[in-house]
């Protein structure tokens, strides 16, 4: 059973950079299987899900067009974790951020519990 | 890319069937058989219920089913149970390694 756990600051000031990490257990993120990838999804309070971006074991990244200019997703295979950085945040970036394992077929089969990040001064 | 369109709410009585729609375009729902459905309880992470339009992951009850016609995908919950009351989200591959979600539907079991 793959497990994912998000961690990072729960409060970020406007204009600063939001940084989150997702620790993965019971599966190696450096596995050469081409079936899987790793993603970030967010959900503003009371609203729907929004895909932020995904990263493959090769390091190839794909970002939502609406966030592309501010997003960086990276892998740390030595720690079996991957990270999200979102720059120049505003109140509109306040959301629960989820990390998840993606699979060929554009689905996410395992999710972290989510972490609330509030953007406020 | 725009979010897929779902009705904000749906409801049914125990034992009835309910269908939730998910409308996109030929660039997402209509262009690929990569539509997924997720169930989310309040304060919890989403759970994959349907993938590739009509496939159920192991452990998902068989009263959940999916289909697609043109640019609209559908999730049908047959024989509604009280525990089916939750929010449901569709998602679709949108080309060029992009993915888009629907706005979500709150399913109420009356």
Give the secondary structure arrangement, pairings included.
The complex is a heterodimer of chains A (121) and B (110).
Chain A: E1 3-7, E2 11-12, E3 18-25, E4 36-43, E5 50-56, E6 61-63, E7 71-76, E8 81-86, E9 95-103, E10 107-111, E11 115-119
Parallel strand pairs in A: 2-11
Antiparallel strand pairs in A: 1-3, 3-8, 4-5, 4-9, 5-6, 7-8, 9-10, 9-11
Chain B: E1 9-12, E2 18-23, E3 35-40, E4 47-50, E5 64-69, E6 72-77, E7 86-93, E8 99-101, E9 105-109
Parallel strand pairs in B: 1-9
Antiparallel strand pairs in B: 2-6, 3-4, 3-7, 5-6, 7-8, 7-9
Summed over residues and divided by their number, the pLDDT of chain B gives a mean of 96
Low-confidence stretches of chain B: none
Number of strands of chain B: 9
Binned strand content of chain B? 35-45%
* Biggest interface between chains: A-B, 22 and 27 residues
Q: Give Rg of chain B in angstroms.
A: 13 Å
Shape of chain B: globular
Radius of gyration of chain A: 14 Å
Which bin fits the share of residues in helices of chain B? under 10%
Give the ordered list of helices and strands of chain A.
EEEEEEEEEEE
Major sheet characteristics of chain B:
6 strands, mixed
Strand content of chain A: over 45%
**Assembly classification:** heterodimer
Plain-language structure description:
The complex is a heterodimer of chains A (121) and B (110). With 121 residues, chain A is mainly beta. In chain A, strands 2, 4, 5, 6, 9, 10 and 11 form a 7-stranded mixed beta sheet that branches. Chain A has a 4-stranded antiparallel beta sheet with strand order 1-3-8-7, with no helix packed on it. In chain A, a hairpin with a 6-residue loop joins β4 (36-43) and β5. Chain A contains no helices and 11 strands. Chain A has strands spanning 3-7, 11-12, 18-25, 36-43, 50-56, 61-63, 71-76, 81-86, 95-103, 107-111, 115-119. Chain B has 110 residues and is mainly β. Chain B has strands spanning 9-12, 18-23, 35-40, 47-50, 64-69, 72-77, 86-93, 99-101, 105-109. In chain B, β5 and β6 form a beta hairpin. The mean pLDDT of chain B is 96. Classes of the chains: A mainly beta (121), B mainly beta (110). Chain A binds chain B through residues 41, 47-51, 54, 62, 64-66, 98, 103, 105-109, 111-114, and chain B through 1, 3, 32, 34, 36, 38, 44-48, 51-52, 57, 89, 91-93, 96-104.
């Amino acid at each position: 059973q793959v497990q994912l756990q998000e961690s990072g600051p729960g409060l970020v000031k406007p204009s600063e950079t939001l940084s989150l990490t997702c620790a993965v257990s019971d599966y190696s993120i450096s596995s050469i299987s081409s079936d899987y990838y790793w993603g970030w999804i967010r959900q503003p309070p009371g609203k729907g899900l929004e895909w932020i971006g995904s990263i493959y074991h090769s390091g190839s990244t794909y970002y939502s067009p609406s966030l592309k200019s501010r997003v960086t997703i990276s892998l740390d295979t030595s720690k079996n974790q991957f990270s999200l950085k979102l720059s120049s945040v505003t109140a509109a970036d306040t959301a629960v951020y989820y990390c998840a394992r993606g699979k060929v077929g554009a689905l996410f089969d395992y999710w972290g519990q989510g972490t609330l990040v509030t953007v406020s001064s | 890319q725009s979010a897929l369109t779902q009705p904000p709410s749906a409801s049914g009585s125990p034992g009835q069937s309910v269908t939730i729609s998910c409308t996109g375009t030929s660039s997402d729902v209509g262009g690929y058989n990569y539509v997924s459905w997720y169930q989310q309880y309040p304060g919890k992470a989403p759970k994959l219920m349907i993938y590739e339009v009509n496939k159920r992951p192991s452990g998902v009850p068989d009263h959940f089913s999916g289909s697609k016609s043109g640019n609209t995908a559908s999730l049908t919950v047959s024989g509604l149970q009280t525990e089916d009351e939750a929010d449901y989200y569709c998602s679709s591959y949108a080309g060029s390694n992009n993915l888009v979600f629907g706005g979500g539907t709150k399913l109420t079991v009356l």
